[in-house]
Design goal:
Elements (H helix, E strand, L loop, with lengths): L1 H29 L5 H26 L4 H24 L5 H23 L5
Helix pairs in contact: 1-2, 2-3, 2-4, 3-4
Length: about 120
Amino acid sequence: MDTILKFLKNIGILFALILGSAFFINIFNYFDLLSQGAYKTFLIIFVAISIFISSFLLGKSSKKKGYLEGIKFGVISVLLMFVISYLAFDSNISISSLIYYLILIISSSIGAMFGINKKKED
């Protein structure tokens, strides 16, 4: 039960970071400070950074094997994002979306590995 709460807390942090960064990127896009290509690139980068930060925090609270915690967190996050994008936006599966989801899983794994290494030893 404790691990489920830990994952839910970090997923909440992830979606808060994604919504916050998307809000600011959309403000820049609204005032024509970003081109359409830059807008999409910044969204991809900020989602990857958000999942890295969330998995970093998860890794700091883990006891061992940060890469497995990161992979589990990445797969759960990607599945949630896929279900939301498939149901809400009616998007199809493509090679580019699979590569994007793979990048997010790798970012999550790396974040958890850094997080478990930054944990203070008691």
